[in-house]
User: Fold this.
Amino acid sequence: MQQFKAELAFQIESTLGESPMWHPEQQKLYWVDIEKMELHNFHPATKDHSMVPTKKRIGSVVPANNGNLILALQGEIAEMDLSTYATKKLIDIEPGLPMNRCNDAKCDKQGRLWVGTMDMDCKPGKGSLYCIDATLKITAALQNLTISNGMGWSLTGDKMYFIDSAEHCVKCFDFNIDHPKLSNQKVVVKSRTDKELPDGMCIDSEGMLWVAFWGGARVGRYNPQTGEQLAHIEVPALNVTSCCFGGIDLKTLYITTAREGLSEQKLFKYPLSGSLFSSTVEAGGSVVGYFKR
Assistant:
C-alpha cells in the first residue's frame, strides 16, 4: 500500500472546512466553512486567499457553465455572480424542515446537480439526496439518510458512489444516465473502526475512490471493485472532511479539515486542524462537473 503525508497548503482555523472544489479556468481552489458561513478561495500559484461571507450555512459549492457558482445553502440552492459576489436564490430545499441544511453536492456528466441534506443535530433519517436539473426540477433520489455526504461517479458513468457517514461505509448504486434513479445498492468500502466516519470523497482517473475520514486523520484510496485499500495519506488533523484533485495536471489532492468537536487536548495534538492540506499523488483526477444553466 502506498503511503503519503499531507503537507500544509494554507493555514486557517476553519470550524467546519468542507467541500473543496478546483476551478480549472481560474486555477483556484474553493472550499466552505459551513458553520462560519464562509466561501473561501485560494490560488496556489500566488498564495492569494480571499473569503466571501454567506448569509446562511453553506454546505458546498460547484461551478456553473455560465461562469457563476452554485451554492448549496441551508434551505436553498443559490447562484453567485463572481463579478459582483451577488447571490440569488434558485430553488428552495426542504422548506418544511427548517433544521435541515445542505451538505455535499456535485454535478454529474449531464450537468445535473446532486445535493444531500441533513439535520443540523444529525438526527437519524432526516436527510435526503436530491437531483436538480437545468429547469430546476428537483427529484428525491434517496431518503431516510442521516449524514448525506460524499459522492462521485464511475468512469463509465453507470455507477454512482455515495456516503451516508452514519453508516460507516461507501455504497455503490447502478446509475441511470437519463433519469435520476439509483438502484441495486451495495457496500464497497467500510470504515476501519467505529471511531472514524467516511466523509467527503472524489474519484481519480483510474476509477479509484479517495475517501476522507472524520476522526481518522487520514484519506484512503480504495478499489471499489474489491474494497482493497491502495494508498494512505496521513493528515495532521483528526477530522478530515473531504478531498478533491487540483493543479494544472490534476495530480494534487487538496484536503479540507475541521476543528469542530475537538477538545483542547485534541487541538493541542492537532494544532493545524481546520487548515487546508495537499498531497501529490500518482493518479490524477478529472475536471469538475458543471451545473447546466
